[in-house]
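Subject: complex prediction, re-run

Hi both,

The earlier run crashed halfway through, so I resubmitted it with identical inputs.
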Amino acid sequence: MLAIEADALRRTYTSRTGWLKPRRTETEAVRGVTFEVAPGELFGLLGPNGAGKTTTIKMLNTLLLPTSGTARVFGHDVARDPVAVRRRIGYVFGGDRGLYDRLSALDNLRYFAELYGVEARDQKRRIAELLDLVGLVGREKESVEGYSRGMRQRLHIARGLLHRPDVLFLDEPSIGVDPVAARDLRRTVADLSAAGTTVLLTTHYMAEADELCGRIAVIAGGRICALGTPESLKSRVRGRDVLEIEAYGVDEERLDRVRRLPGVRGASVEDRGTLQVVTVQTGRSSAELHGPVLTALDGVRIGRVTSREPSLEDAYIAIVEEAAGGPDRSATPAEAEEPAV
Amino acid sequence: MRHVLRLVLVGVRTHVSYMSRSPIEITFAVLVPLVYATLAVYLFRAAGDPDRLLTASVGAGLMGIWGSVLFGSGGAVQNQRWLGTLETLVVAPAPLALVLLPITLATAVIGTYAMGATVLWGVVLFDVPLDFAHPLLFLLAVPVCVLALGMMGLLLAATFVLLRNANALANPLDTPVWLLSGLLVPVTVLPAWTQPLSWALPTTWGARAVHAATSGGDVITPLLVAAALGAGYALAAVLVLGRVERRARAAATLALA
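This time it finished cleanly. Structure:
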């Protein structure tokens, strides 16, 4: 039996504006998503902001009803049999909130253990195991208010695992977490997967997805644009080279000039403080394009220029740009804001 | 059944503990009833009714419990949403009613701080004698009254999920309910047409039991009626919540979502 089955899942949000003449606006956040996850698999859902990742996860974990389509978790329909689904899943999301921060970690875990139906005689042992797993032993009696974001995130994971779920939904768990805490988090997730827990992970961090996920679905504009192993996704851009240029003051006009150069398959810019990193995807022989690209960026202070093999991130950008209708500067199709449930 | 009871008890302990750690919330929960208690004591004195000063203090305490239930339970879902805990609560396999009931009961328990404060205020400031007619029954009546109000709070929480501007609706409900329930002045002084409304409120019977334990009269009958009505309200809430949860998942626009 499959751990997760999503079949043509769609979700439309309806919003009303105005008092006298109310206007209904419908926004399709997820437009027919289909995928399957096998038991024990670590499956990644990648996509830009507003792509429909969180909406998809919230339909699968019973917080939202699909507008159409079906989804099952270990054979239980998420719309018709939510309680059976909830017994088998854990849900962890990133960020500071979602805990009773005036209480201790122990009080939080005791309360959620009751809510998740952990037998009273097992609670003490299970909570101790989880505190050990997430490295909070010795801090469990302190108020959560004094916890760092990384500690809160680890407590979230402990909470999500209290009832030994078969499927764990991790919605951007490493958001805002420092690199060391993120590494620990990845190790915990990998260990869980190795122990047989099915994990569905959404993340913005490509390295995280590359390291952890057995298969990845790239979602953009509410549709799955690519699905496969990290290697197979990377192979989509294998025929390309990547030029990375450190620059200061690149504007859209110059970036467009780069995009229009023959042989350029895509270009994007990422701000890293005052520094910008322009990533240009080219066909093979990127060396020939060094000159024309630098000419297109004329007038901008240029730092280091490097050429490298494409990474999963480059594959992701290429897929998302294709989905947006060709190389696009934003690579973030405007979609509905996913409401916080 | 044992698991349900345990869930409710652990939930009440968790939420009382959480709410009690906000000095500002506790201060306001106690301060307003103290103002009511002061006014009530002066009113009763001015009316030439000095024998009923303890009734005034206890009545003000009941108003404190009601206020805590009304605003706490009415905002229960919204508060959890602000805390970011609502998703984790809804995604738990426990029924939503059993998730919310401990929260509404906790708001009633927090209200008992007001009862303690108003009685103490009367003793210290106005020399109100602690001459309860049935002291032991008073100690029984207050928790049963708290339980009944907590269950009534569950229905408030459930209906306030459906009504988006719950906070705005809570304000105009405050005074009419304490007037109709006879928390401070007997319902017999109200127009006859209000009687059925009064009878339908668990607060009326809870207050009647607590007042009887304070100044004499039958305590057990109104206490049982309060508990039965509270249970009826809780049952109605369970039915409403089943629909509310489904609607919230479908629309993604309710307070739950």
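Chain A has two domains: 4-234, 239-309.

- K.
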